[in-house]
TrEMBL record:
This is Cytosol aminopeptidase PepA. One of its GO terms (cellular component) is cytoplasm. Gene3D superfamilies: Zn peptidases. GO terms for molecular function: manganese ion binding; metalloaminopeptidase activity. Keywords: Aminopeptidase, Hydrolase, Manganese, Protease. The lineage of its organism: Bacteria, Pseudomonadati, Myxococcota, Myxococcia, Myxococcales. Transmembrane segments: none annotated. Belongs to the peptidase M17 family. Residues 343-350 form the Cytosol aminopeptidase domain. GO terms for biological process: proteolysis.
Length: 511
């Protein structure tokens, strides 16, 4: 769907609108684009009669330009990009809005021209804008499948991007495949994507990609996950599973990426029931598994030499019933660590602990890296707002994994915030009696707990048997970015941080 265009006039022949995204002052930005003189003069005429365009209009404006593609230009100025806190998202957000406006105007094959500011931090802006633009064409899975669906009169079918290289276009198309898959899996409702139906979607989506898919319906080998699922076992369609994804590259394997994704298809909180409307949007608590699945889809397309990828997606429903697991239970994890349950609504860390313990078995610390992805805590949003919360252990820090990921995120519009585990986090989950080895949580919500997203990292580290293993381990809490705006029931899924992860892995390969 995304194509690069080296020259505006040539690309115009196959386009039906020109979309211009440029920071103020607009006249200066237009000069950088190198548009044909006739188009530029028409846009300058529009600036002369509308001062808001020159200063950065709050909404895209459609300008009639007979010689332009489709006879129209959608002009989307932004505020000046002058501060070091400005990044490519200023332009990518404007590009998405402008492309949506072009489609409203009747365009299905627009040509996007972005005036990219100078500076290394804007080096990948065209790709980011292209991805934001094509994401506007995505429809939720259940909307596409609905018999009552009415197809829009015009749809975005192809996007040409001025000055985007063919290599960058190929990379963006691969990323969009994975991000679209992630968006489907995030937004599918609690009955459309029950654990086993989530698995069925993966089986269909990975056909022909080279990714091996196996579905484990017997989860007795994952005792903590099985405890979370206990109340759901009586309802056949709500029963749990673990989806295993395995990508093996051609040639010699030099590195292994081990991924764990939290896939809670609906989180009622279990016996510690969510109240006061807290369940709304909880079908999106599978965002970690969705993100991991989307990432694997991209990596299968990108084929990073020597990189094997193994992912476990823990698909489970945290229901309430007479078989619910409860606080005070002591459950031996897959690792053999005895876990005392502190709060059944802290279920995601239990799922991840068993998945990571399974991934750890046979992993070589010299070549393997473990990464867990989850919508784990409300605290990470309270602490960081709409950013990924990233935390790693000492071996991963020695590798520089999060440092590389953070650099990639800045370039690709998926910035993250980082913290590191402290001794207080391990003291927080320390056993309170000789009957257990670790405490899963306190009785409070994470937002009411100091270091409410670092403590769960310590729990996972201990419960999975990773502590002192020398295996590099990175945890990404995506609760603040899984949808935007951060309304879990109505927000649009983002696919973040798939692009940053792919770029970080490719950067490590290049180094």
């Amino acid at each position: 769907m995304i194509e690069g265009a080296a020259e505006a006039s040539a690309a115009a022949k196959d386009s039906d609108a020109l979309v211009v995204v440029a920071p103020a002052p607009l006249r200066t930005s237009l000069e950088k684009l190198g548009l044909p003189d006739e188009w530029r003069r028409a846009l300058e005429a529009a600036l002369s009669v509308d001062q808001s365009l020159a200063e950065g209009s709050p909404a895209p404006t459609v300008v009639a330009v007979p010689s332009a593609p489709g006879g129209r230009v959608v002009l989307a100025p932004t505020a000046p990009i002058a501060h070091d806190t400005d990044d490519c998202r200023v332009l990518s957000e404007a590009a998405a809005t402008a492309i949506a406006r072009a489609v409203q105007a009747g365009a299905s094959q627009p040509l996007l021209a972005v005036a990219v500011p100078d500076g290394a931090r804007f080096a990948r802006t065209l790709e980011v804008c292209a991805l934001s633009a094509v994401a506007t064409a995505w429809e939720p899975l259940e909307a596409r499948e609905s018999p009552a669906r009415k197809a829009p009169p015009v749809r975005l079918r192809k996007l040409s991007v001025l000055n985007l290289s063919s290599e960058a276009a190929a990379r963006a198309n691969a990323l969009e495949k994975g991000r679209a898959m992630c968006r489907d899996l995030v937004t599918g409702g609690p009955e459309r994507l029950t654990p086993l139906r989530f698995a069925e979607y993966c089986e269909a989506a990975f056909k022909g990609t080279g990714v091996r898919v196996a579905v484990q319906k017997d989860v007795s080998g994952y005792p903590l996950l099985a405890a979370v699922a206990r109340a759901s076992m009586r309802v056949e369609r709500h029963r749990p599973c673990v989806v295993c994804l395995d990508w093996v590259p051609e040639g010699h394997v030099t590195r292994t990426l081990l991924l764990a994704g939290k896939g809670v298809t609906y989180d009622m909180g279990g016996a510690d029931l969510k109240t006061n409307g807290g369940m709304a949007g909880m079908s999106r608590d599978k965002g970690g598994a969705a993100t991991v699945a989307g990432l694997v889809r991209v990596l299968a397309e990108r084929k990073i030499p020597g990189l094997r990828v193994i992912a476990l997606l823990g698909m489970v429903r945290n229901s309430i019933g007479d078989e619910s697991f409860v606080s005070d239970e002591i459950i031996p994890a897959r690792s053999g660590v005895r876990v005392r349950i502190g709060n059944t609504d802290a279920e995601g860390r239990l799922v991840l602990a068993d998945l990571l313990a399974a991934l750890k078995e046979g992993a070589d610390p010299a070549t393997a890296t473990l990464v867990s992805v989850a919508t784990l805590t409300g605290h990470v949003y309270r602490a960081f707002g709409p950013y990924v919360g990233a935390i790693e252990n000492g071996p991963a820090r020695a590798q520089g994994f999060i440092r590389t990921l953070a650099e990639a995120g800045e370039l690709l519009g998926e910035p993250l915030e980082t913290t590191r585990p402290r001794r207080e986090d391990y003291q927080f989950v320390a056993p309170k009696a000789p009957t257990e080895d670790v405490l899963s949580s306190n009785r409070l919500a994470s937002v009411d707990t100091a270091r409410g997203h670092q403590g769960p990292f310590a729990f996972i580290d201990v419960a999975a048997g990773l502590k002192n293993s020398q295996l590099p381990f990175v945890h990404l809490d995506i609760s603040g970015v899984v949808v935007t705006p951060p309304d879990w029931q109505a927000g649009k899924p983002t696919g973040s941080p798939i692009a940053a992860l792919v770029e970080a892995l490719e950067a490590r390969q290049r180094s």
